[in-house]
Specification:
CATH class of the largest domain: Alpha Beta
Largest sheet: 5 strands, mixed
Shape: globular
Structural class: alpha/beta
Number of helices: 14
CATH architecture of the largest domain: 3-Layer(aba) Sandwich
Strand content: 15-25%
Oligomer: single chain
Order of helices and strands: EEHHEHEHEEEHEHEHEEHHHHEHHH
Number of domains: 2
Number of strands: 12
């Protein structure tokens, strides 16, 4: 095992409560005993951000509410949107960025629940142990690997660069189609000069390859930034409201366990991502919101996307008024 050469951050165990209402489906609403559709498929990126989902599955929280859940791993939320719009996936779990882009372009999605918020050490730019890039300024003209095109990684890194006086246009973002699990090895093989990674893959890169953190992305304008959510199409949410309510209730119970029981988080990640104990024991845990979807949280994402050109200027008025985000968390239309 290589010595971890970047930093160690204590596991975050405090519950993070959402403050503002904005979604009619909440854990405070009693879930029905009989869902409209008991068999559902959830497509999820492999990251500790979504451990509430894995705990809900392992602890039988879905089953207790009459749901039979199948979890399929995906490299990024953007990669699965076409299948979801075709009805081949019921709920997806991943970055808000892709869904906001799709909503602006005319799709109709509903954010059922928030999954995670950025915290110290949970998203980072990582380089190899012997990389010549040792400062943020050294990234100009370099390649940065991300798990999805125009993704949360692109957004967070763009914000970091801008705060250091570097135009995001001066770096080359390259998407790894296999996502986070393959990226530590790809970085070590020289595919890029730096990689955007989420936990537990930040820790894995350090343990297996001696990789180092160049920059923690939980800083400045993106401190405590909303990262992932559980999203369905509006058509699906309207057709299966009892299933959606049961799903949200189970997720929030899973989130509460994740906030209070680090051992449960470690066990879930070891099982679903097949990680060794030295990684699960050292990985940093995200914050897991509980409560109604908070419009203000998601609005931060939309505004940052507009700032960095991930949403066209034709959507500026809709973003500034908040109507784009409201259409994703308000009553079904």
């Amino acid at each position: 095992m290589n010595t971890r050469s970047f930093y160690t951050v204590p596991v975050i165990t405090a519950a993070i409560m959402a403050l503002a209402a904005g979604c009619s489906i909440t854990a405070s609403t009693p879930a029905p005993s009989t869902p409209d559709e008991p068999d559902i498929t959830i497509a999820a990126i492999p990251a500790v951000d979504l451990v509430g989902l894995y705990i809900a599955q392992d602890d039988g929280l879905f089953a207790q509410l009459g749901l039979h859940v199948t979890i399929e791993k995906i490299p990024s939320s953007q990669a699965i949107i076409p299948d979801q719009l075709k009805g081949q996936v019921d709920i997806t779990a991943g970055s808000y960025v892709a869904y906001i882009s799709a909503q602006a372009a005319g799709a109709r999605f509903r954010i059922l629940a928030e999954a995670s918020t950025l915290g110290p050490g949970t998203r980072a730019l990582v380089t190899t142990a012997d990389s010549p890039v040792t400062t943020i300024g050294g990234l100009a003209g370099k390649k940065i690997g991300v798990n999805g095109t125009n993704s949360i990684g692109t957004l967070l890194v763009s914000a970091l660069l801008a705060e250091h006086g570097i135009s995001p246009k001066k770096v080359n973002f390259i998407t790894d189609q296999e996502g986070f699990p393959a990226m530590p090895g790809q970085l070590q093989d020289g595919a890029w000069d730096a990689a955007f990674l989420a936990e537990p893959y930040i820790t894995l890169a350090g343990e297996e390859y001696g990789a180092q953190v160049l920059a923690d992305l939980d800083q400045g304008a993106t401190s405590n930034f909303p990262i992932d959510g559980y999203v369905a199409t509006q058509a699906w949410a309207q057709k299966y409201p009892k299933t959606a309510a049961a799903f949200v209730r189970a997720i929030e119970e899973g989130q509460a366990i994740a906030n209070s029981d680090p051992a449960a988080v470690q066990a879930a990640m070891a099982k679903y991502d097949k990680l060794p104990p030295e990684v699960t024991a050292a990985m940093v845990v995200s914050g897991y919101p509980i409560g109604p979807v908070n419009e203000t949280h998601i609005q931060r994402v939309a505004l940052a996307m507009l700032q960095f050109g991930m949403l066209g200027t034709e959507y500026a008025a809709e973003v500034d008024r908040g109507t784009l985000v409201k259409s994703m968390v308000g009553p079904a239309s």
